[in-house]
Write a structure and sequence with these properties.
The chain is α/β, with parallel strands linked by helices. The chain has eight helices and eleven strands. The longest helix has 29 residues. It is globular. The chain binds NADPH dihydro-nicotinamide-adenine-dinucleotide phosphate and 2-hydroxyethylsulfonic acid. 2-hydroxyethylsulfonic acid binds next to loops.
Length: 256
């Protein structure tokens, strides 16, 4: 297993959910962490908490991943501060709404496309050159079960995660001549702030998504990501679909 101690992990979207759980897990094992997100207060709280708990260095960067200039600035800033990542977790993403396509909100579509595809690419473009310069490390792209299985109301979110799947496979090919491994993890239902965001903070609707079964938790996915990145450098897990035991497809749940 690769020792993460003193290595640097860059995690986009680390103010909650899967990204945040990854930040705590890598830090607990001695890695230094770059965390990003739009919510400054959360970034500052997580930075102080991790630094005091684990004695590692945390570098917060507050910006919107859909802002192309801000992402470019982020990459330049990492280089200037000599923050070369060994691990890159391209995680920031969201869903908005579950309306059928014909009733969908174009604003919601644009937000998902801007965040999950364009933001994903901007972040990759900012970070990959630094990793290529060192010719080492591992990239984890946050795909989803929604990236290979469409479900009613998933439409545009599905399309963005199909795109992540394609881009992750493409990244693997394009980095062939490097030592950098590329993986996408494709979770099913994970209880985070994901559904709250999807339903515009309507807690009842969000809670309903996970009613009657035990979903995955952000920490479960963080542990799997940690394993995927830390196994022998000669092993490349290209993509991994993970569901709770009570979920067998994107729309098939055992709710008791
Ligand atoms: P959360 O809502 O808990 O976390 C999402 C993170 O993304 C937050 O830190 C948020 O930070 C960040 N983010 C969202 N939009 C932007 C933006 N425009 N600019 C910068 N950061 C942004 O959800 P999850 O942890 O569940 O989601 C993480 C990833 O996992 C996403 O890509 C999601 O699609 C994927 N996923 C989630 C599943 C689930 O069931 N939960 C299943 C499969 C995949 P902030 O708001 O501070 O900007
Ligand atoms: C999140 C999981 O099934 O709600 O990517 O799309 S799902």
């Amino acid at each position: 297993m690769i020792d993460v101690k003193n290595k640097l992990v860059v995690i986009t979207g680390a103010t909650s959910g899967i990204g945040k759980a990854c930040a705590y897990l890598y830090a607990k094992n001695g890695a230094n962490i770059v965390i990003t997100g739009r919510r400054a207060e959360r970034l500052s709280h997580i930075t102080n908490d991790i630094e005091s708990k684990y004695g590692v260095k945390v570098y917060p960067f507050c910006f919107d991943i859909t802002d192309r200039d801000a992402c470019e600035e982020f990459g330049l800033s990492l280089k200037e501060k000599n923050l070369y990542p060994y691990f890159f977790i391209n995680n920031a993403g969201l869903a908005k709404g579950v309306a059928p396509l014909q009733d969908g909100s174009i604003d919601d579509w644009e937000e998902m496309i801007d965040t999950n595809i364009k933001g994903f690419l901007y972040a990759a473009k900012a970070v990959l050159p630094l990793m290529i310069e060192k010719n080492e490390g591992c990239i984890i792209n946050l795909g989803s079960i929604a990236g290979s299985q469409v479900y009613p109301g998933g439409n545009v979110y599905n399309a963005t995660k199909f795109a992540v799947r394609a881009l992750s496979l493409a990244m693997n090919m394009d980095l062939l001549k490097t030592n950098i491994r590329v993986s996408s993890i494709e979770p099913g239902a994970v209880e985070t702030e994901f559904s709250l965001v999807r339903f515009n903070q309507d807690k009842e609707k969000a809670d309903n998504v996970y009613k009657g079964f035990t979903p995955l938790h952000a920490e479960d996915i963080a542990e799997i990501i940690y394993f995927m990145t830390c196994i022998s450098e000669n092993i490349n897990i290209q993509h991994l679909l993970v569901t709770p035991t009570a979920q067998r497809s994107a729309s098939l749940f055992n709710r008791g």
